[in-house]
Amino acid sequence: MAGNRAIYDQLMQTGSARAWEKRWDEAVAAYEKALAEFPDDLQALTALGLALAEGGQLERALLTFQQAAKVDPDSPTLPEQIGAILEKMGQGRQAALAYVAAADRHIRRQNANLAIRQWKEALRCDPNCVSAHVNLLKVYLTQRKTAEALEEYLALAGIYHSQGRTEQALQIAQLALKLDPLDSRAQVLLVRLQGGGLTEPQPEADMAELTFTAEVPEGGGEEGGSPVETARLKALANLAETVFSDMPHQTSTLAVLPMSKAEVDALITKALDAQTRGNVDEAIACYEDVLRAGVIQPAANFNLGLLYQQRLRFEEAIAQFQKSVEQPEYRLGSHFALGECYRALGRIGQARAEFIEVLKIVDLGTVDREQADDLIQLYEELARTHAAAGEGEQATEFVNSLVAFLSEKGWEDKALQARERLDALTSKGPVLSLAEILATPDSERILQAIGLAQEYQRHNKMYAAMDELNRALSLAPYLLPIHWQMGETLASMGRLDKAVAKFLIIAEAYHVRGNLLQSAAMYERVLRLDPMNLQVRARLIEMLISHGEIDRALEHYLVLGNAYYQMAQLDRAREQYTKALQLAPRGSAEQNWAVRLLHRIGDIDLQRLDWRRAMAAYEQIRTLAPDDEKARLTLVDLYSRFNQPAKAIAELDGLLQAYRQSGKTQKILTILQEQVQEHPDSIPLRARLAQACLDARDIPAALQHLDTLGDLQIEAGHMKEAIATIKVILRLNPHNADAYRQVLAQLTGGQEAG
User: Fold this and answer.
1) Residue 212 near residue 138, CB atoms below 8 Å
2) What is d(CA 548, CA 141) in angstroms, rounded to the nearest whole number?
3) Phi and psi (nearest 5°) for 172?
């Protein structure tokens, strides 16, 4: 059965506030109560797990995260949390398996870089985790990272050697030597394996087999090329594969030179040979013939685009990249190449748009699925902002910075490091885009300074952290993430006024840029430090409404109204609730905004003894939510105060009918008992309670209430009704039936006594 959403929300807010204050036991208690409302709620489970872990209750935290993982089996962050807890508990091997599970989920989401990080975590916990070594080896071979792949080969060979699995160890050592014939470690290992001298076999662990065939690049490889180079290698491999495949080439109906598969394969082979030998014009001619034959092959479009680009035929190159960009595996490289072509043509605005798309693709590969929508929105806002700014010096600097970054060796790892720094900064707010930093000159030095500042702050070395941030500001005075981190450091130092001032400046800067997410995050950060800053909250509400964030605006209206209420400023509280009520129809229906707000308005009117306005509020609630018990019962009371008994009873009957329809029969008895206790002389209430007892087959209670009902009817002169009541009593065979017959005889003149 669904719980109470309002209670849940309040408990989650309480838990968050206690967690912010590091009062872990209180946070745990709040989250547990929230879970009592919605036992499988993922947000509550995750929050509880984190609070338990921070409070040192590792076993309970582990069980909580395992329950959360059952609710969301596709989440990579939950097995990451499980791995971290197992690691703290000293269960290294189990922690490694959890990290491998997290990596698998990242791979399903095509987040290879995040998966690599988790495989490395697994090996840190359990150096003999074969599945982590195997997966890293696959990635390193694909990325042509020779040194890293060699390390994985040697590690796997050593593991199988220690287990006495000689044949597998020998095969892996031979692959290692094929990768690097001069590596002395691989040579020694191979000799040792071929000559015997194995250690005693160890018990075989529950680890994955090496069941893939690794292709070793000729002559080694280079690490971390640009997106274009990575896509080029992929295109060459894919074209070579099509030549050896039995599958026919996919063709369009627009073929100029229809050809057989053998003829197309011969052209592709010739094109690949010419391209790898540097014979650009011959390769161009071959690819053009392939495409004129109607072959649909994005790899050929991409390679031909690169060759046109080499010959400075930029418009023709752009036409080819615009075709290959539709294919996911060439999307990143195609956008980058398009940006380079537009830059070469002096079309900086179009170049900038392509490089923003490049950075968006890279960035989406560094975040979890739940952050993706916010990140996409950030890049849409970034594109609009840059488009409005034109093609001046700032646009050129932006493009040049991104090209420099994405052309550096190891840019993928640097992007991941940048993401870690930004996520540490925004742990309690929305995601920041990599464009915040990477499109700035000296981005690497700035990231290093922010990272050091975060590390100093964790170790309570606040002044050292501020020194690092001041150095970063000397490189980029207007870079907002630096100011953001400075605000966090000031808050940690207890200098709340300065932190608030810093965050307000950042909020305004983001707002001017049209960046709603970060601007709102800054205002909300201020409100966590200064909850009673009503001016900031009102500013935030205004901004959220203007950008269509209605639910968030209504949440802040509630908080604002509650703040005035707590200060006993009832008129101002009612004013805020009324404003929110006008906005409520634009909010989410499932949030029941109108009902929640009308309850607050009605409560204020009751406190001010404004019965008529209160009545109007609760009548609206009854219309919107017919089974709202508080509204119905309040109306019963208000109608009674205004001497409208018929309306009061009709209101009560409406609530009882709603309970009957939903099967809440016990609620009917409870409500009627409470009403009769408050109004013991009410004939209609006593009659309904007697009937409810009869419906529940509680004959003794029914007789008791029928007896009282009869007395009330006689006292009121309702003899006909009293006679009917006594007849009902007699049909129930009371032990003193003769006494009731005597009363009945008196009421009927002796005609019906028998």
Assistant:
1) yes
2) 48
3) -70, -40
How many other CB atoms are there within 10 angstroms of residue 444's CB atom? 15
Distance, CA of 326 to CA of 334 (rounded, Å): 9
Q: What was the pLDDT predicted at 223?
A: 43
Q: DSSP letter at 433?
A: P
Give residue-wise pLDDT tens across range 565-588: 888 889 888 988 899 889 888 988
Q: What angle do CA 608, 611, 616 make, to 5 degrees?
A: 115
The first and second tokens of residue 59, run together, are 């076993």
155 in the same domain as 261: no
For the chain, residues with pLDDT lower than 70 are 1-2, 182-184, 187-188, 191, 194-225, 243-249, 251-257, 370-371, 382-383, 385-394, 426-430, 439, 750-754
| Shared-domain flag, residues 232 and 168 | no
| Judgement on whether residues 173 and 242 belong to the same structural domain of the protein | no
Are residues 182 and 40 located together in one domain of the fold?
Answer: yes
Is 153 in the same domain as 248? no
Kindly tell me the sign of the dihedral angle through the C-alpha atoms of 577, 579, 585, 588.
negative
CA distances from 644 to 334, 631, 649 (A): 76, 17, 9
pLDDT tens-digit series, residues 345-390 = 888 888 888 888 888 888 787 777 766 777 777 777 766 766 655 6
DSSP per-residue string spanning 596-641:
HHHHHHHHHHHHTT-HHHHHHHHHHHHHH-TT-HHHHHHHHHHHHH
Please choose, from the candidates 438, 232, 221, 408, the residue with its C-alpha nearest in 3D space to the C-alpha of residue 333.
232
Angstrom distances, CA of residue 577 to CA of 380, 550, 604, 620: 34, 14, 10, 15
Q: How far apart are CA 572 and CA 726, in angstroms?
A: 56
Can you give the residue range of the structural domain that contains 232?
226-345
Whether 64 and 50 have beta carbons less than 8 Å apart is answered as no
Model pTM? Answer: 0.48
Q: Based on the fold, state whether residues 257 and 142 are members of the same structural domain.
A: no
pLDDT at residue 254, rounded to an integer:
56
Residue with tokens 């500001």, as numbered in its chain:
473
Cβ atoms of 85 and 98 closer than 8 Å: no
Distances (CA, A) of 255 to 220, 251, 292, 742: 39, 8, 6, 109
pLDDT of residue 204: 37
How many domains does one find in the chain?
A: 3
The reply to whether 178 and 252 lie within a common domain is no
Give the CATH number for residue 190.
1.25.40.10
